[in-house]
Give the backbone structure.
Amino acid sequence: MPQLRLLGPGMLRFILAAMVVVSHLTSLNIGRPAVLLFFVLSGYWVSRLLAGWQASVPAFYASRTLRVWPLYAVVTVLAWLLHAHAEAVRPESLWSALTLLGLAARAGDVIGVSWSLDIELQFYLAIPLITLAAQRLQPLASLALAVAAFGLGIALFAAHVPTLLFYLPAFLAGFVFHRLRWQPSADQVRASLLAAAAFTAAMTMVPALSGLLFKAEFTDSLAQNLGQMAWILLLAPFVAWNINQPSDRLDRWLGDLSYPLYLVHLPVVRLLAEVMPVTGAGGKLVAVVAVLVVSIALFMGVDRPLEARRQRLWRRTKPA
């Protein structure tokens, strides 16, 4: 697909983070689908990482936690200190947020997007077990187990307890991409994009589906989340194609920038809203520029040094 040659894996991650920013600045309800696509990508990349892991499972957990938590903690503490969130003035919110694991099911999300990182950490904990089950069980038994786990996830979500189990289809899609080494054909990718585009068009025309795309009908209900899950899974062949594309230095840089952009955008927008309106086109443009500036500063001044220290630590502890 030469017309999409420039869309590398890093660029896709940056676009997904930008979609979350757009969702928080407009009436478009595209933030949750973007996060679900992040989960698909995580399912692939973390499965691939674990497949080549040569150390212990606890070391894997430590490495993944050190990649995600330190920058998250820095942003969370700064947001709390700046009172950039309504609940940030409460000390218990900070401790709840810094704990992170289980935060999706309780109060205390200081930066507004922490729930997804909780789900991500739950996946890190589960992926060795998922891999073991895939290796030991027959395909039909694995499928039955996945369906049962998803059913339990739906029941918990309906009881207002969101867990990894509810988002399992997204993560497992990426897991399957890696396990099968799937490289979809150009026709499959085109069909994927056309199907997603047709579903998007239906959301603009069918009132019952409009809540999947527009916040005017946003309820964060079980049905709405399941509909958005179905929406993003239509893009599965496209995502499987994208992860197999070459990635140059700029593409990797944009992909790495997506994480601080995702973490910091909502606290920055909320802080700006305390001193100026961010509802008009001009205010939103100022917010976007501010978010990019802070994201790049955080990326260069905090994330890169933290990641360099993690890499050095891993090289010292990695077995010969």
